[in-house]
Amino acid sequence: MDEREQEALARAGKPVPVMGPGYTFGSVTDKISSIVLTRPTSNGWFVGFGIGFLLTMMMLYAIGYLFVRGIGIWGDTTPIGWGFEIVNFVWWIGIGHAGTLISAILLLLRQSWRNSINRFAEAMTLFAVACAGIFPAIHVGRPWLAYWLFPYPNTMGYWPQFRSPLMWDVFAVSTYFTVSLIFWFIGLVPDLATLRDRSDNFIAKRIYGLLALGWRGSARHWHRYETAYLLLAGLATPLVLSVHTVVSFDFAIAIVPGWHTTIFPPYFVAGAIYSGFAMVLMLAIPIRRIYGLEDFITERHLQNSAKVMLATGLIVAYGYGIEAFMGWYSGNRYDAFSLWNRLHGPYAVFYWALLICNIFVPQLLWIRRLRTSPLALFLLSGVILVGMWLERFIIVVVSLHRDFLTSSWGMYYPTRWDWMTFIGTIGMFLAAMFLFVRILPMISIFEMRTLLPEAEVKPE
Amino acid sequence: MRATRNYGLMAEFDSASNLVAAADRTREAGYQKIDAYSPFPVEGLAEAIGFHLDLVPLITLIGGIVGGASGFLMQWWINVVSYPVNIGGKPHNSWPAFIPITFEMTILFAAIAAVLGMLALNGLPMPYHPVFNVPRFAFATKDRFFLIVFASDKKYDAAATRKFLEGLNPRAISEVPS
User: What is chain B's pLDDT, residue by residue, as a tens digit (178 residues)?
Assistant: First the structure.
């Protein structure tokens, strides 16, 4: 069904289907659970997981060497004290935001089309936040003392500085990870019970059974479950907005030109959702193709995701515009120089690449034919992910390398250890996603059942 | 065979509508201790089996209040009582700077309270339960709908209740051994 037919349905006041026709409770269950339970593991899976696993090992090697030698092995040097580690941290945590947006905000807005993509978007959130969390932990200089960030009574008689946004970050990110984890797990419980009841494998049945917590689908349980799920969504919604806001405070509260602006919180949140949806599409497009899930992750899902990207991309463009405008309008010579330096300084090529990736190329999404083409969307999402990474690079490195005193100007060149750690986190993310689609239902089975017309209770 | 007291009688239905209708009629017939099982949340089913009081929101609210209060009081106590540091003459209790962490702690505690409260009220985790002894019950997580009348119900009588359940036109009726 293409968009014209959907619009015709919508105009006629009929519900637009979010699933292919002809499914029943049983066939939806079988189709999704068979991916985990009966489908033979393909060679492609082993290759993909293997690449991810090897890259993860490379990351662990780079981190191990970091622990031995210290962060001098990285490209960070005065005046650029924050290099790849913060760029990557912000990039990864931003990617995570789309998962929470899909699972929590779209749930509250009753966007039932989300039911087929929320599960793996939440998994994406979890793995992205896990990748993000590595960087602040290893960049502290003495990573084995990273637990000093947490307030605990200690013999040194010292407490962390609660007025610092870096401290807020610790609480925001750890809360975000915890809440994302329990949200994801609670969403999985009824499906784990399905797998427990469908699995023929002695061990798998018991593992799924343990994780399902003895779920039996009692009406009382469902009632409390739905209440708790809705409350979690209500709590996760302000949480996700707060997390990237707090991340942006790390910059905005400092006085460095290029950081010290009030537009940062909303513009960071929009950028997070922008890159997150790009990652959702980069995962969803191959997954629906490989596992034959075109009936569940339909063209409508791709279209809607593309529209969200277009909207958030325009907000991001507005953010760039305001930054440039304030550089001129503030009359502050450092702000003006910061803008000039972005356009013409030594890293200018990155800024122009950023504008192309994040603003110009995504305007292609206005074209309906590209919004419905999986290949075009996949490539565009890749461009946007690169663009959003460049944005964080510009904010972190380009702002730091030219500040108030010409005597403290410098350049930043990432080393091979920076690259190994960064690419290694991508590998870890991939490996985790591969494991996830192999051992857990990647689409929420029980929420898909509720989308079927038979799920509606008809009065007698 | 030894005559054991059953846990209850279970009727199987093939649609959500039939289950809700059956639950309504069972309640109308005077049965109090009943439960219904479905593979997804069914609207109106909880009301049909006589479940009204959902304490999860209250627990979540308490969790949020405790989290927010403890988050703020922790920062206040550390900065004012335990470890006061004079930085540029700024007040020790600089409360606006404490808000982000207070907010995050509110969310964290409320979310954990919602989940643990839901699990505790549901009596989960409980890996074993008598209803699992019914082989057909494996379909309760797929595409079948079940109604149970517990043997502990005052009106329960093995023969009479079975007869009543048969009148509801189920696909099958099973005894649930305890």
Answer: 444 568 888 888 888 888 888 888 888 888 888 888 988 888 888 888 888 888 899 999 999 999 999 999 999 999 999 888 888 888 999 899 999 999 999 999 999 999 999 999 988 888 888 888 888 888 888 888 888 888 887 877 878 888 888 887 888 888 888 7
Q: Can you point out the beta strands (E) in A26-159?
A: none
Question: How far apart are alpha carbons B55 and B114 in whole angstroms?
Answer: 10
Q: Is position A315 within any domain?
A: yes
Q: Do B62 and B117 fall into the same domain?
A: yes
Alpha helices, DSSP H only, in A101-155?
106-108, 118-138
C-beta separation of A362 from A383 below 8 A = yes
The number of folded domains in chain B is 2
Examine the domain organization and report whether B68 and B34 are in the same domain: no
Residue A432 has pLDDT above 90, yes or no: yes
Nearest CA in chain A to B110: A235
CATH of the domain at A356: 1.20.1630.10
Domain range enclosing A86:
41-453
- The answer to whether A138 and A65 are in contact (CB under 8 A) is no
Contact B104 A24 (CB under 8 A): no
Q: Same structural domain for residues B85 and B42?
A: no
Rg (CA), chain B: 25
Q: What is the C-alpha R_g of chain A? A: 23
Tens of pLDDT, residue by residue over A307-328, are 989 999 999 999 999 988 988 8
Pick from A194, A232, A238: which is nearest to B142 by CB? Answer: A194
How buried is A350 (Cβ within 10 angstroms: 0-12 exposed, 13-18 middle, 19+ buried)? middle
Closest Cα partner for A93 from A253, A271, A281? A271
Question: How far apart are the C-alpha atoms of B89 and B69, rounded to whole Å?
Answer: 26
Q: How many residues are present in chain A?
A: 460
Q: Provide the domain limits for residue B77.
A: 56-121
pLDDT tens, position by position, A14-67: 555 677 777 888 888 888 888 888 778 888 889 999 999 999 999 999 999 999
CA distance A295 to A448: 11
Which backbone phi and psi does A332 adopt, to 5 degrees? -85, 120
pLDDT digits (tens, 9 = 90+) for A252-294: 888 888 888 888 899 889 999 999 999 999 988 998 888 888 8
Is A378 in contact with A282 (CB distance < 8 Å)?
A: yes
CB contact under 8 A, B111 and A216: no
* Window B:99-118, CB contacts with A under 8 Å: 100-101, 103-105, 107-108, 110-112, 114-115, 117-118
Check whether residue B103 and residue B63 sit in a common domain. Answer: yes
The structure's pTM equals: 0.88
**Residues of chain B found within 8 Å of residue A458, distances taken between Cβ atoms:** 17
**Residue A16 forms part of a structural domain:** no
Domain match, B60 and B112 both: yes
Q: ipTM of the predicted structure?
A: 0.90
Q: Please state, in angstroms and rounded to a whole number, the distance separating the CA atoms of residues A289 and A294.
A: 7
Which of A 161-200 lie inside 8 A of B, CB atoms? 162-163, 165, 167-168, 171-172, 175, 178-179, 182-183, 186, 190, 193-194, 196-198
Q: Which of A220, A243, A445 to mutate to test the interface with B (most CBs of B within 10 A)?
A: A220
Q: pLDDT at position B1, please?
A: 40
